[in-house]
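Reply to dn_fold:

You asked what the input looked like. This is it:
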Amino acid sequence: MNKLLEVRNLTKSFAQPLGASHMLWQNVNFALGYGENMSICGESGSGKSTLLFALGRLEDVQSGKIFFEGKEVTDEKSSNIKGIRYIFQHYQLVNELDVYENIVLPCYMQRCPVDAKLLKLLLETLKLESLQHRMPAYLSGGERQRIAIARALITQPKLLLADEPTGSLDEDSGRQVMDLLFYVCKTLGTSFILVTHNISFAKETNHVFYLKQGTLLNEEG
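and this is what came back:
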């Protein structure tokens, strides 16, 4: 497999009162190829989101190595890694900006031009064309999450890290968002890692992993 992301023996712990240390997860190993997707499931508090944030370098780890496109990025800051973007459960849109401005914001922050063809594709695919000049306060949760997806993809990342993207949505809205996420990522060739409690969504990904008692197991494990 041509590896986009490779993780070797990743371990994370955190300090508890009185100097004790709690092991969140240890010896995490997996690889993800270009254009592939995978899901990470587990109980609340098992460390799924923390693992996702560690992969994109928003969280530190105690030991192990992370490789992105063949380069070790274990000690890199998130802002220094090009090609990885996030989608969060609570959208994190800028309320003072309209839909169009929220979507293209990463381009301005990275001082790169907006790809007009890609923008058009995202607006059409995610059904946002008629909402471009609306403010986030006047949109539904499903619409806000679709905007967050478009914003994450506007700079054409190689890898998308999605943390419970349907966690704040009702069942129908969540299904629509996931259908669109799968479709647009396949269209663009973008790999993604999905953290979710929804097993049916998880089983639609190429690889399903479960985080149990500090160990990451594949579906057969």
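Helices lie at 48-55, 99-109, 116-125, 141-153, 171-188, 199-202.
Hope that clears it up.
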